[in-house]
Specification:
By secondary structure, this protein is an alpha+beta fold. The chain has one domain: Sandwich (Jelly Rolls). The protein starts with a helix and ends in a 6-residue tail after the last helix. The strands form 2 sheets. It has a 6-stranded antiparallel beta sheet, with helices on both faces. A 4-stranded antiparallel beta sheet has the order 4-9-6-7. The longest helix is centred in the C-terminal third of the chain and has 17 residues. The chain is built from 7 helices and 10 strands. The structure holds 2-oxoglutaric acid (AKG).
Length: 227
């Protein structure tokens, strides 16, 4: 792999996300076929609403192989500092915008590995991030986050104009992020997305509780927040 676990883990610590170009290139054909079996799109490929399937690693063995790969293990162990566990997975046919959000602010870190099976650009719903916004020591659990969520009222900005890093990706790329980081997707076209979420093996009672809450929240809020 053209990246080092420790460097990716450091990028995650500093920015909250990392773009792993071509990391899952070998799996693309299998992922495409598997996605088709899991989610049937209308003949024009354009669902009216988002569609999500959970717990897909068994039904989509090509993604299971990515999730069990040595490089995913290496990044997780470097980031969590211990063995990890995959706690949820999902396949999504996404349409439209995903508003600015974090997947909750947890004291326990969680990583989400995301693969888009369609090219995404800044004009077609590429994932974008506010670097460093996962870090409580940046004050992001307070006012800045509220202002970003209320970008129109508080900052006079459309969501897509909030200064951010846009991660344009191609099939085979993997985007990994700490799920506390503020992220969004604007100008969204139809995009097929596969993802799995990991946590360091919970040790304390607080970590076990966070892990249970995180797990339940995935199902309650759907795969992605849209408002
Ligand atoms: O592509 C998107 O709509 C954003 C997805 C997202 O927020 C996520 O996967 O957590």
């Amino acid at each position: 792999m053209p990246f080092r676990d420790t460097e990716v883990a450091r990028q995650l610590q500093v920015f909250g996300f990392a773009h792993l170009r071509r990391a899952a290139q070998d799996a693309v054909v299998g992922l495409e076929h598997g996605f088709e079996r899991l989610i049937r799109l209308p003949s024009d490929g354009r669902p009216e609403e988002r569609v999500t399937e959970f717990d897909i690693l068994t039904g989509l063995p090509a993604l299971g192989s990515v999730a069990r790969s040595a490089w995913v293990r290496g990044i997780c162990e470097a980031y969590f500092g211990r063995r990890h566990r995959v706690i949820t997975s999902d396949a999504n046919a996404l349409v439209g915008d995903s508003y600015w959000h974090s997947d909750g602010f947890y004291n326990t870190p969680f990583l989400r590995f995301v693969l888009y099976l369609d090219d995404t650009t800044r004009d077609t719903g590429a994932l974008r991030f506010l670097p460093g916004s996962h870090r409580a020591d940046n004050g992001w659990t307070g006012d800045p986050t509220r202002h970003v969520i209320r970008h129109r009222e508080d900052l006079g900005l459309a969501g897509g104009d909030v200064p951010a890093v846009v991660v344009e990706s191609r099939p085979g790329d993997v985007i990994v992020f700490d799920t506390n980081v503020m992220h969004a997707a604007w100008h969204g076209d139809v995009r097929r997305q596969l993802a799995f979420n990991c946590v360091g093996e919970p040790e304390t009672e607080a970590e076990q509780l966070d892990t249970r809450r995180y797990f339940l929240n995935r199902y309650v809020s759907g795969s992605v927040l849209i408002g």
